[in-house]
Amino acid sequence: MKLLMVSAVLLVFSVTIVAQPKPWVVPAEYKTKKNPVAKSDASNKAGMALYTKNCASCHGKTGLGDGVKARALKTFPGDFSKADFQNQSDGEHFFKTRAGNGEMPKYEGKLSDDDIWNIVNFMRTFKK
Questions:
Q1: Do residues 98 and 27 touch, judged by C-beta distance below 8 A?
Q2: Backbone angles phi and psi of 111, in degrees to 5
Q3: Most buried one in 30, 41, 47, 70, CB count within 10 A?
Q4: Residues 21-49: what's their mean pLDDT?
């Protein structure tokens, strides 16, 4: 009986470890990478269309992490209005969107770099 109990505890512990997302490791060159797409109404409009199509289902229409698919995720998709998100560089957001991590899909090869930069510009509009 003790062996069964210990096995159950170890199984729960191992599943918990697997469910933890890998930390975002952003290479140094992306932390200082400048956004080549100027912030403008045109960029925000393009970014909004791309965000709505590719991101809002998890991150929510206003970036609060409350999209319709968010409840099914093992990890909270993040609140883009908060300082911890807004204080990251554009290059960090570009890298994370392009490379993906855990449940966050990678968009490299699915969206152009300019499309990703437009999304980054649009996500800046969520700042409170």
A1: no
A2: -125, 150
A3: 47
A4: 94
Class of 26-126 per CATH? mainly alpha
Distance of CA 121 to the CA centre of its chain: 14
| pLDDT for res 20 | 53
pLDDT, tens digit, for every residue of 83-111? 999 999 999 999 999 999 999 999 999 99
Q: Which residues contact 70 (CB under 8 A, 6 or more apart)?
A: 58, 59, 60, 76, 77
The Cα–Cα gap between 84 and 120 comes to 15
Tokens of 85: 């998100």
Q: What is the DSSP letter of 101?
A: B
Burial 78-88 (b: 16+ CB within 10 A, else e): bbbbeeebeee
What pLDDT was estimated at residue 14? Answer: 46
Whether residue 93 contacts residue 16, with contact meaning beta carbons closer than 8 Å, is answered with: no
Helix H or strand E encompassing 36 = none
Q: In this structure, are residues 63 and 79 in contact, taking their beta carbons and an 8 Å threshold?
A: yes
pTM: 0.82
* Residue type at position 83: A
